[in-house]
Write a structure and sequence with these properties.
two-stranded antiparallel ribbon; mainly alpha; 116 residues; 2 strands; 58% helix; Helicase, Ruva Protein, domain 3
Length: 116
């Protein structure tokens, strides 16, 4: 898996696609934000700073306050890969987020998505 391209992409350029995927299925931007905050530990203010600064994925996750301890409970296939088997820690975090947004779009409840 060639990861260098996705690492250098700005999170702000992909964020609208997460929102679009969710809203197309009747979910909300607020739910997308809740998922991102849950996974990364960001709050609204620090998150908006990263969006405004067009932080790339590598730095977005490197600067995250704390990856949620329950992130390891995220399992399944996304983009043809089992998220729990991805060896590269950064790619695994990116795919965790992809998987959570995918679950949101598929109609899962927020409690299940947030592994409560």
């Amino acid at each position: 898996m060639n990861n260098t391209k996705v690492y250098t992409m700005s999170f702000a350029s992909v964020y609208p696609h997460y929102i679009q995927k969710a809203t197309k299925k009747g979910r909300t931007k607020e739910e997308v934000d809740t998922i991102i905050f849950w996974l990364t530990g960001y709050d609204e203010s620090s998150f908006q700073d990263h969006i405004a600064n067009k932080t790339d994925f590598e730095n977005f996750f490197a600067q995250a306050p704390q990856l949620n301890p329950n992130a390891s409970k995220i399992t399944g296939v996304i983009c043809g890969y089992r998220v729990e088997a991805i060896e590269d820690p950064l790619m695994q975090k990116i795919r965790y987020l992809d998987k959570l947004i995918d679950e949101l779009a598929k109609g899962k409840t927020m409690d299940k998505i947030l592994r409560k």
